[in-house]
Amino acid sequence: MKNKTRFLIKPLLIALGSAILVQACAIPSIQIHDPSIILPEQFNGESNTAKADSGATIQWEAWFDDPYLTNLVESAVANNKEVAVLIQRINMASNEVYAREGEYLPGVSAGIAAETEKVGEYTRDGAVEEQLEIKEGKAFADPLANLRPGLNASWEVDIWHKLRDATKVASLEYLASVESKNFFITQLVSEVSRSYYELLALDNRLANIDATIALQRDVIRTINALKEYGRASSLPVARFNAEVKRNESERYLIEQEIAEKENTINLLLGRNFQHIERDSQTLFNTDIVHPPVGVPSTMLANRPDVKKAELTLQAANLNINVAKANFYPSFELKAGVGLSAFDSRYLFNVPESLAYSLSGDIFAPLINRRAIEAVYKNASAEQIQAAYEYELTLLTAVAEVSNSLSKLDNLEKSANAKREQIASLEDSVDIANQLFSSAHGEYLEVLLAQREALEARSEFIETRQRQMTALVDLYQALGGGWQS
Predict the structure, then answer these.
(1) What angle do CA 18, 23, 28 make, to 5 degrees?
(2) Residue 333 — φ and ψ, nearest 5°?
(3) Mean pLDDT lowest for which of 56-60, 158-162, 170-174, 450-454?
(4) Given a cut of 80, is residue 321 above it in pLDDT?
(5) What pLDDT is recorded for position 326?
(6) Mean pLDDT score, 182-208
(7) Under CATH, to which class is 109-157+331-363 assigned?
(8) Nearest alpha carbon to residue 190 among 467, 477, 394
(9) Which end of the chain is more exposed for a tag (fewer CB within 10 A), N or C?
């Protein structure tokens, strides 16, 4: 009988092993995508950009020599609420790595189990108890208790490196979360700077309107003086008064924009409303220089979003191996050792109460593997998505730097032309005032000259603000700001 049983068990084991191997080998085919972006050697074909050093490594204070702005940036990085949220996400990602590292180590638990059981008399256990009672001449307790203090251990043998690869994936995701925070800091630094320069531009627009209003009121006084001598009528006074009211209305709107911009900066700094300390003349006193931008390949070492996309792609590649390992058999070892007795009086009677166990399990999916196949195909789709996102991030980075360089160059030319225009218009205002005062010119010429000069100065302020914003955009495009 024993030989017959062994004869049957051996083929069953062989068949089971063959089925496991066949099913493990029947893995669906998937696609992956390798990034194939070739970065240009230079930005915009400019030879002066082909330098090894990138401006992104320059500290913030060296780019923008403004102590007020420096204080705002430092306060924003230290107190911004979204930065605090991202730091907690990094902590959670770190805890995930810690948890994954423990998954491929043996687990040991200690405990005490207590149970009681009443078996039926006409069952196998009941018959055994009856025979023992007859043999020993003693009655079994009914119901029968069982006490089991001891240690249990289990360990999944990581033959296919599924658990180790999952730990590496968690580590890469943790590093990606760090780069995500760095990228946000870069954006935060840039947003604070843009808002700051917009605030300076509003201050100068307000000062420009105030100067224009004062000039127009001087003209009104001149016209009133001429009226006394019969050399002017009430019409110019009415027209200039209307122009003054028009500018005063614009002035209130600018004051509202200033209040809103200060609120925006305070929000970025994570604080309630307070006055933003600043020097409005910094908008014109700061020299616009072309910092070294380096070669495009240096952005890989500076831009956090590029590094995040690269880490995400590495994690997606490893995740395919993790998903693929689910098709293979899993091996788990279990062991337990402790004491067992139906009565506490016999619990410490060693070796009679000593109990132990040792087992090994092999499991492999055979039928209805749709969930595993879906996870595997999703891992493939995520890898392709991560590869395309990496390519898109690289292309976006190069485009942003190129656009910022081009914008700085063209805005500099526009600002120079605007300065010449303002100088000519200011001369025309002086000439128109002199002609009108000497009764050789019309008041409309004075009004038109003043309005054109006001508009030209406003446009120059806007151009100057756009220059500073373009410099901020270049610093962000190069991946600067987060190092501080």
Answers:
(1) 150
(2) -105, 135
(3) 56-60
(4) yes
(5) 87
(6) 92
(7) mainly beta
(8) 477
(9) N
Show Cβ contacts of residue 82 under 8 Å, excluding neighbours closer than 6 positions. Answer: 184, 188
- Return the amino acid letter for 31: Q
What is the identity of the amino acid at 56?
Answer: A
pLDDT average, residue stretch 43-61: 57
**DSSP-H helix ranges across 26-58:** none
In the three-class reduction of DSSP (H, G, I as helix; E, B as strand; rest coil), residue 153 is classed as strand
The identity of residue 78, as a single letter, is A
Q: Which two tokens stand for residue 101?
A: 């590292």
Higher pLDDT among residues 44 and 50, named by residue: 44
Most confident option among 111-115, 126-130, 389-393:
389-393
Phi-psi region of 329 (alpha: psi -120 to 50; beta: other; left: phi over 0): beta
Domain ranges of the chain: 26-104+158-329+370-477, 109-157+331-363
Q: What CATH class does 26-104+158-329+370-477 carry?
A: mainly alpha
Rounded to whole angstroms, the Cα distance separating 401 from 297 reads 12
Backbone angles phi, psi at 357, to 5 degrees: -150, 150
Cis geometry, peptide bond prior to residue 143 (ω within 30 degrees of 0): yes
User: Exposed (0-12), middle (13-18) or buried (19+): which is 250, by Cβ within 10 Å?
Assistant: middle
Q: Residue type for 236, please?
A: P
384: CB partners within 8 A, 6+ apart:
31, 32, 33
Give the Cα separation of 277 and 68 in Å (integer).
6
* Residue 157 or residue 320, greater confidence: 320
Bridge partners (DSSP) of residue 114 are 147
**Token representation of residue 173:** 């995701």
308 φ, ψ to 5°?
Answer: -65, -45
In angstroms, the CA 24 to CA 126 distance is: 44
Question: Which residue's structure tokens are 């225009």?
Answer: 421
Least confident segment among 234-238, 274-278, 323-327, 350-354: 234-238
The candidate with the shortest Cα–Cα distance to 358, out of 335, 385, 339, 375, is 335
Q: Comparing 194-198, 205-209, 381-385, which segment has the lowest mean pLDDT?
A: 205-209
pTM score, whole prediction: 0.78
Query: DSSP 3-state assignment of 294?
Result: coil
Q: pLDDT, tens digit, for every residue of 238-255?
A: 877 888 898 899 999 999
Q: Which residue has the tokens 């062994």?
A: 6
Average pLDDT of the chain to the nearest whole number: 82
